[in-house]
């Protein structure tokens, strides 16, 4: 172990203790018998040198997601969960704006939105890198409208600032009801 101190704590979700207990089914994530589970889903590692924690998904189940607590930079292939929908981001070079005059290349943001009822045909939205803020939600007034009763009227916002795309939960400091979640293994 290279002379480093290592401490491991394990918590495994226990199987049902009551044999007469009925199985529970999660309507969003699918079936499941409360007496079985697929083992470890993720692990948390503390780095003594940096004083920070890292979470790693172990590739079982639906993945480990964290609730967005503050604004976060959107990266390429970023996976976001909003209600029952999933959104995947792609950063696309904007050829028209690239070059020495602009000090490098700007990026467009392409979003693929996978609603729960139509996974084969995602909605594709390309966001220009202008200064406007884009609002995601179920309200007809939103720039990106997702028809999902589990999300807020104004669920989250995306803006382009300092040559980066930023995602934030809610609008004007008010959080969404069920939160915006992002895949932790990114």
Automatic annotation (TrEMBL):
Record-annotated FHA domain positions: 134-181
InterPro entries registered for this protein in UniProt: FHA_dom (IPR000253), SMAD_FHA_dom_sf (IPR008984)
Domain of life: Eukaryota
Membrane spanning stretches: none
Protein name stated in the entry: FHA domain-containing protein
The organism of origin for this protein: Strombidium inclinatum
């Amino acid at each position: 172990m290279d002379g480093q101190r290592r401490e491991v704590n394990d918590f495994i979700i226990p199987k049902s203790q009551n044999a007469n207990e009925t199985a529970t089914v999660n309507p969003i994530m699918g079936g499941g018998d409360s007496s079985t589970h697929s083992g470890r889903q993720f692990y948390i590692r503390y780095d003594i040198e940096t004083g920070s924690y890292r979470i790693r998904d172990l590739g079982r189940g639906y993945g480990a997601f964290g609730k967005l607590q503050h604004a976060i930079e959107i990266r390429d292939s970023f996976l976001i969960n909003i209600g029952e929908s999933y959104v995947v981001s792609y950063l696309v070079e904007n050829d028209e704006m690239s070059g020495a005059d602009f000090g490098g290349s700007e990026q467009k943001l392409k979003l693929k939105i996978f609603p729960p009822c139509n996974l084969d045909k995602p909605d594709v939205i390309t966001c220009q890198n202008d200064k406007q803020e884009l609002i995601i939600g179920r309200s007809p007034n939103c720039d990106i409208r997702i028809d999902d009763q589990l999300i807020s009227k104004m669920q989250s916002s995306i803006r382009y600032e300092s040559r980066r795309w930023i995602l934030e939960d809610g609008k004007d400091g008010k959080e969404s009801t069920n939160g915006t979640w992002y895949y932790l293994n990114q």
